[in-house]
């Protein structure tokens, strides 16, 4: 067995048995490798930041306090029925969406997931950058190939992802999360997550060939705080370091999203999206290239379009766009 394979197998054993000691001899026997290979794997994992204790007559043990994203760490939380188990976890990527788009164009099947602990060219909506520092967030992209989906139906993927993100955050943190239409997740008045859905069309039938669903979640605030330009808006899911928080949060999102995606024709997520809307019943500003327009957000319809009433009494159903809304004393856009 190659050294890389040994390291991954040792990590999987440790992740599934956090806090449990294994002797080098026992690990070698379980994995059918030499004790020297086990020692090398443990050394490599320590060099990568894993807190692995070693005690005489007890062996090696992965500290329960370790919080590093890994495929092994995420998989141990995934439901058996979760369709998103093909995980590529990277320490760093330019953009997980861009990387997965390349893989999709090369024929990668549905269910592929790319996760990074840092992005150097993270992308948000409308061409904006997405702040993606190391060791504080989860930057993840999923490859979807839904059958017979038209471009105007693609918003449904963003919608179910937003619901899944809220539920995952609540499951892991115990705090309530809501949705600022159409794709931003807020906790306690601050944005903790954003979603970017990108689609490729088939020229033959004008149907979607594949979708790359990207989501970034601020698990922790970066040391020294967020940059000034987003400091009044950005927040984090956890107020302090949590044991294995990032792996648990990533898996919770994959589990929840997999359930909604598998049953997407039922539309069960729509009512949950509506219930979590932070804009319904509030005055908003609709932002467009031509300027700003005041409106009242009346409701979210069955297609998750935002139903608005303008000051002149006219109404519109928005399927995409950008809005600003006041949370407390701050305007959020």
Describe the model.
The chain has three domains: about 5-60, Winged helix-like DNA-binding domain superfamily/Winged helix DNA-binding domain (Arc Repressor Mutant, subunit A); about 70-275, Bira Bifunctional Protein, Domain 2 (BirA Bifunctional Protein, domain 2); about 285-330, SH3 type barrels (Roll), CATH 2.30.30. About 30% of the residues lie in helices and about 25% in strands. It is built from eight helices and 15 strands. The protein has helices at about 5-15, 25-30, 35-45, 70-75, 95-105, 155-175, 245-260, 270-275, and strands at about 50-55, 60, 85-90, 110-115, 135-145, 180, 185, 190-200, 210-220, 285-290, 290-300, 305-310, 315-320, 320-325, 330. It has a seven-stranded mixed sheet with strand order 3-4-5-9-8-7-6, with helices on both faces. Strands 13-12-11-10-14-15 form a six-stranded antiparallel sheet, with no helix packed on it. A hairpin with a 2-residue loop joins strand 7 (about 185) and strand 8 (about 190-200). Helix 1 packs across helix 3 (about 35-45). It starts with a helix and ends with a strand. The model has no long low-confidence stretch (mean pLDDT about 90).
In brief:
With 333 residues, the chain is α+β, with helices and mostly antiparallel strands.
SSE layout:
Elements: H1 3-16, H2 24-31, H3 35-47, E1 52-55, E2 59-62, H4 71-75, E3 86-90, H5 96-105, E4 112-116, E5 137-144, H6 155-173, E6 178-180, E7 184-187, E8 190-201, E9 208-218, H7 245-262, H8 268-275, E10 283-288, E11 291-300, E12 306-310, E13 315-318, E14 322-327, E15 330-332
Parallel strand pairs: 3-4
Antiparallel strand pairs: 1-2, 4-5, 5-9, 6-7, 7-8, 8-9, 10-11, 10-14, 11-12, 12-13, 14-15
Helix pairs in contact: 1-3, 2-3, 6-7, 6-8
């Amino acid at each position: 067995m190659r050294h890389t394979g040994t390291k991954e197998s040792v990590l999987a054993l440790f992740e599934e048995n956090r806090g449990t000691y294994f002797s080098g001899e026992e690990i070698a026997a379980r994995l059918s490798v030499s004790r020297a290979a086990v020692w090398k794997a443990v050394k490599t994992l320590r060099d990568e930041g894993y807190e692995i204790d070693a005690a005489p007559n007890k062996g090696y043990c992965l500290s329960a306090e370790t919080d590093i994203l890994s495929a092994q760490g995420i998989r141990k939380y995934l439901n058996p029925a979760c369709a998103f188990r093909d995980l590529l976890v990277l320490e760093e990527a330019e953009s997980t969406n861009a990387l997965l788009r390349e893989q999709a164009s090369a024929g990668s099947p549905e269910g592929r997931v790319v996760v990074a602990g840092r992005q150097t060219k993270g992308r948000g909506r409308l061409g904006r950058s997405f702040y993606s520092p190391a060791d504080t967030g989860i930057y993840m992209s999923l490859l979807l190939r839904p059958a017979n989906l038209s471009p105007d139906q693609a918003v449904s993927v963003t919608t179910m992802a937003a619901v899944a993100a809220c539920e995952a955050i609540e499951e892991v943190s115990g705090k309530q999360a809501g949705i600022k239409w159409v794709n931003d997740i807020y906790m306690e008045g601050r944005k903790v997550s954003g979603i970017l859905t990108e689609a490729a069309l088939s020229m033959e039938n004008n149907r979607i060939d594949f979708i790359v669903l990207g989501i970034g979640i601020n698990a922790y605030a970066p040391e020294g705080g967020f940059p000034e330009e987003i400091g009044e808006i950005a927040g984090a899911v956890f107020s302090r370091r949590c044991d294995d928080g990032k792996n648990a949060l990533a898996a919770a999102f994959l589990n929840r999203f997999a359930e909604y995606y598998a049953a997407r024709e039922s539309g069960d997520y729509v009512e949950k999206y509506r219930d979590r809307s932070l804009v319904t019943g509030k005055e908003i500003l609709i932002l467009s290239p031509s300027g700003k327009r005041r409106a009242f957000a009346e409701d979210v319809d069955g297609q998750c379009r935002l139903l608005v009433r303008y000051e002149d009494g006219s109404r519109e159903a928005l399927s995409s766009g950008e809005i600003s809304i006041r949370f407390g004393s701050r305007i959020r856009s």
